[in-house]
Design a protein that fits this description.
mainly alpha; Serine Threonine Protein Phosphatase 5, Tetratricopeptide repeat; 2 domains; three-stranded antiparallel beta sheet; 20 helices
């Protein structure tokens, strides 16, 4: 949790306690002097804000603990204190606070809802996903449309690759939001198709889910790639494979090149796909696509094909990144033509450099992922091109 968020919580608590003091004074019909307990709580809050502004978050947290001691029945104070403990990495203390709140006999349903959700976040932050999921589900028993709990549970289901359970949660989220998330659902179906094929070897189910994904979103490249893999595995005739590839490049140009590793993997299609891929290269002059193709051939031990393709297409790189990438593919035949030390450094660079960047949050990763590991958007990864080292 950032200091700005902690400051916001403290300010909200100052406002809440100040209102409570005013309200108590308004309701006081007798001429008795006002109680000073609530005034005493305001000072620790103000000191906490001062510590926070002075970049002393630990001391600010101590003041919040003092506020809680001065008013042991203040559920809102304990909720904020739990948030601060979680934000400072003290997950155990946050868990204890939220569990104690839920054990109170006087807790109201709306307070129990927030406490279950907060406890779920504690467990989620600590990596205890099963416990977190149980808390989110208990929050949803109180309010079936609690959007934060639905979204957090969806994230856990996606993390656990429980794609159909994730899809069911997504349906509930759509109803609450009143929005159609067909593109998100398409990726969930595509992942279920991939699971059915890779884990269960159920070709029929895999094809059905892939078709469902494409019906929802014609731009779901992941689903096309599952279908392509199924066609290649069953040794489908090249015209059928080519038709799917053309549709893939037409609908999903950003991700279509992910078909190349599959095509190179199968010797039968490695040669058959060459004219098609050369045609794509000549139409687009996509440096990243050509480098991926050459690299996959190099990994398959087809260095003769690498040299032949470079000569046949007249391929030259147009960026420093491309130069290093191509240099990292140099084999023993390059001895005497290229400095061996430079080739070695290029190979080390290639092992470390990240090839994909999220168009939403900018995080970079080495392997292609359909869901961004940072912002969790689906289909947001793009190939990194240009002089980005």
């Amino acid at each position: 949790m950032t200091q700005a968020v902690i400051l916001t919580l403290l300010l909200l608590l100052v406002a809440a306690i100040s209102w409570w003091v005013w309200r108590q004074n308004e309701l006081d019909a007798a001429d008795e002097p006002p109680k000073r307990d609530d005034d005493a709580r305001v000072m620790p809050l103000l000191r906490g804000i001062n510590f926070l502004l002075s970049d002393q978050a630990d001391l600010a947290l101590q003041e919040m603990v003092q506020v809680a001691r001065l008013r042991s029945d203040a559920i809102d104070v304990y909720m904020a204190l739990g948030e601060m403990f979680r934000g400072s990495g003290e997950i155990g203390r946050a868990v204890r606070i939220h569990q104690n709140l839920l054990a109170r006999p006087d807790i109201q349903p709306e307070q129990a809802l927030e406490a279950h959700y907060a406890l779920g976040r504690d467990f989620h932050t600590g990596g205890l996903l099963d416990r977190a999921l149980r808390q989110y589900e208990q929050a949803l028993e109180i309010d079936s449309g609690h959007l934060p709990s639905l979204e957090a549970a969806l994230r856990i289901r996606e993390q656990g690759k429980e794609w159909l359970k994730a899809e069911a949660l997504l349906c509930r989220i759509e109803r609450v939001r009143g929005e159609d998330a067909h593109d998100h659902r398409a990726f969930l179906y595509a992942e279920e198709a991939r699971r059915c094929w890779h884990e269960e070897h159920d070709r029929q189910k895999a094809m059905e889910y892939a078709d469902q994904a494409i019906a929802l979103d014609e731009g779901c490249a992941s689903a096309y790639l599952v279908r392509l893999e199924l066609l290649l595995e069953q040794e489908a005739p090249w015209p059928e494979v080519e038709a799917l590839l053309r549709r893939l490049w037409q609908q999903c140009r950003h991700h279509a090149q992910q078909a190349i590793p599959l095509l190179v993997k199968y010797a039968r299609y490695r040669a058959a796909s060459e004219p098609f891929l050369i045609g794509i290269w000549r139409d687009s002059h996509d440096e990243g696509m050509m480098l991926l193709w050459l690299e996959q051939l190099h990994k398959a031990g087809c260095d003769d094909d690498v040299r032949r393709l470079i000569d046949a297409t007249g391929f030259t790189t147009s960026s420093l990144r491309g130069d290093l990438h191509l240099l990292s593919l140099a084999g023993e035949e390059a001895a005497g033509q290229v400095d061996a030390g430079l080739v070695a450094r290029a190979k080390r660079w290639r092992r470390q450099v990240k090839d994909y960047v999220c168009a939403e949050c900018g995080v970079e990763v080495r392997e292609m992922r359909w869901q961004c590991p940072q912002c969790h958007q689906w289909g947001s990864m793009r190939t990194v091109n240009g002089d980005v080292l």
